[in-house]
User: Which sequence fits this backbone?
């Protein structure tokens, strides 16, 4: 395996990084060989590699898997999860976790539905959903950063509180949203197979990448997660950084709520715990360290796609739905195991 | 002696019933290495924290360039050119050398990080000071203890700092690495930085410093020019065997 890949990869490596190909060519291919036999190299790219493997396997088993209709379906189905995975990445990068992310999304869904039922203009319904998410995120952030309560407990409490609030506001009833706009953004798009909600998810992922790796805030997020002592010693206000990441997570959960309503055409008030598990799973698959300080956006995005492909593929192959949670669990634990080889 | 960069006048500080500092008076001259020695618990670190903005003296004054100052935070002290190299290094392992050098001082252009500019400046900072530091793009996790200390010192020395405080900078290092870090400290002085060095290594104090202050039980009991004293006398002053 490594020899084949090495001959493929060597010219690329030589042209891109060796200043003096004559003397360095051997060294470059050597470094590629060591990289490709290094488990850490694979662990860091687990989600992308796993995604390609799944695509190959499912296509081999059923060629219609790669039909344009199915690809469009997979992409649209993954949009909300991509946004939640990106949101979770920010929190996990600070060595925290947001267990309330799916419930806060549900709260956003309910707020959207109630505003819509009251005849509020659609744009204001969206604002309401996003504000509800942002508010819940700010409460999380305040309790974690200022009140110094463990993130696990705070967000577990918010998980219950937000879903409870959703049930109270909606009286447990979904609102059917028959609005042409939703069909437009979930079915149409700028290019075939890519709907507008997928575009929204991609734009959010790109912005998140820029924020994490090209702003001071992003560096401070990684520093806060990597070494709170070092961050504090250089004057970084780690409490503000934590407030920030939970607020971002809540805001993005509110945006994800709009996407879910667009796809479903209704506002189910019941919390969907699968979204929570999958958001954490996508982050783990994406090579983000649960101990904080090490993160990527592309990895969790691929992780979210991988999980969606996995579920879609199993359904296409006619595997019983009951096997889906089991398969997700196996994939996630396997990915976490791979992460142990990361250096 | 020329005007001191920083001076403590009758500085006292208690934590509850513990009198950590009692009427401490000492000066740190520009362009030289000042050593602060004393037993554990003598008050060295507490005094240093009064200079770096972590603690505030309860009585007495700290003077910077002959003007009384009161730092509200470490940030305030840093903005006045007082940098600290922490004993626990204070580096983020998963960030690169250049990211650590610019941590919380990131250069930005139009709100975005100027990554290229920071890499370039970091390479310059490192090449000017350190001899054994690897690529600025490598992650700190891959660095040896001495290389990490060099990065910490580079960070403190950069940004036109005037006084660099080092709390036992070589305590965790091997012989070779200690030698390199000592060279780095000397180069820092030669470039015009004042250095305040806390050390338990008397040979190191004699090798590097020009001025030695001795603390015992919260008091500054003696000050000597290094070339007019001996290691034995310093040890005697620390234990109290030699009268100041």
Assistant:
């Amino acid at each position: 395996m490594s020899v084949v890949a090495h001959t493929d990869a060597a010219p690329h490596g030589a042209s891109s990084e060796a200043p003096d190909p004559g003397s360095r060519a051997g060294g470059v291919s050597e470094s590629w060989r060591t990289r490709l036999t290094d488990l850490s190299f694979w662990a860091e790219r687990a989600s992308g590699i796993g995604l390609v493997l799944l695509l190959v396997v499912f296509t081999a088993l059923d060629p219609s898997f790669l039909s344009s209709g199915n690809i469009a379906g997979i992409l649209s189905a993954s949009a909300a999860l991509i946004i939640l995975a990106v949101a979770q990445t920010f929190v996990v990068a600070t060595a925290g976790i947001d267990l309330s992310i799916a419930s806060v999304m549900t709260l956003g869904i309910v707020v959207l539905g109630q505003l819509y039922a009251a005849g509020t203009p659609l744009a204001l319904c969206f604002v309401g959903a996003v504000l509800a998410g942002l508010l819940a995120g700010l409460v999380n952030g305040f309790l974690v950063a200022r009140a110094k309560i463990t993130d696990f407990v705070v967000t577990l409490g918010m998980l219950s509180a937000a879903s409870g609030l959703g049930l109270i506001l909606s009286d447990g009833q979904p609102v059917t949203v028959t609005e042409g706009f939703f069909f437009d953004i979930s079915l149409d798009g700028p290019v075939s197979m890519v709907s507008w909600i997928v575009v929204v998810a991609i734009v959010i992922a790109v912005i998140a990448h820029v924020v994490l790796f090209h702003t001071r805030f992003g560096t401070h997020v990684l520093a806060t997660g990597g070494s709170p002592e070092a961050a504090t010693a250089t004057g970084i206000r780690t409490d503000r950084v934590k407030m920030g990441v939970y607020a971002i997570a809540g805001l993005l959960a509110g945006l994800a709520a709009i996407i879910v309503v667009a796809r479903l055409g209704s506002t189910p008030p019941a919390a969907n715990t699968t979204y929570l598990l999958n958001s954490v799973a996508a982050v783990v698959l994406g090579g983000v360290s649960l101990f904080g300080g090490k993160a990527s956006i592309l990895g969790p995005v691929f992780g979210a796609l991988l999980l969606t492909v996995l579920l879609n593929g199993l359904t296409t192959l006619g595997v019983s739905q009951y096997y889906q949670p089991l398969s997700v669990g196996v994939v996630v634990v396997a990915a976490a195991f791979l992460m142990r080889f990361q250096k | 002696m020329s005007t001191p960069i920083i001076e403590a006048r009758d500085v006292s500080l208690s934590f509850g019933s513990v009198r950590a500092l009692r009427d401490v008076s000492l000066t740190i001259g520009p362009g030289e290495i000042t050593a602060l020695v004393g037993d554990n618990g003598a008050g060295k670190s507490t005094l240093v924290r009064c200079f770096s903005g972590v603690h505030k003296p309860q009585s007495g004054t700290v003077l910077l360039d002959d003007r009384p100052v009161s730092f509200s935070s470490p940030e305030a002290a840093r903005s006045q050119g007082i940098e600290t190299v922490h004993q626990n290094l204070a580096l983020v392992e998963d960030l690169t050398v250049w990211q650590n050098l610019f941590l919380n001082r990131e250069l930005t252009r139009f709100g975005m990080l100027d990554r290229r500019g920071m890499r370039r400046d970091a390479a310059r900072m490192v090449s000017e000071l350190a001899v054994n530091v690897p690529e600025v793009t490598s992650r700190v996790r891959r660095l040896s203890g001495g290389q990490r200390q060099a990065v910490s010192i580079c960070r403190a020395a950069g940004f036109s700092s005037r006084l660099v405080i080092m709390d036992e900078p070589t305590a965790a290092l091997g012989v070779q690495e200690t030698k390199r870090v000592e060279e780095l400290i000397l180069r820092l002085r030669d470039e015009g930085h004042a250095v305040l060095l806390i050390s338990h290594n008397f040979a190191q104090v004699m090798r590097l410093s020009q001025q030695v202050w001795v603390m015992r039980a919260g008091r500054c009991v003696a000050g000597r020019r290094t070339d007019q004293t001996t290691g034995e006398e310093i040890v005697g002053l620390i234990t109290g065997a030699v009268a100041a």
Observations:
- The longest helix of chain B spans residues 175-190.
- The first strand of chain B starts at residue 6 and ends at 15.
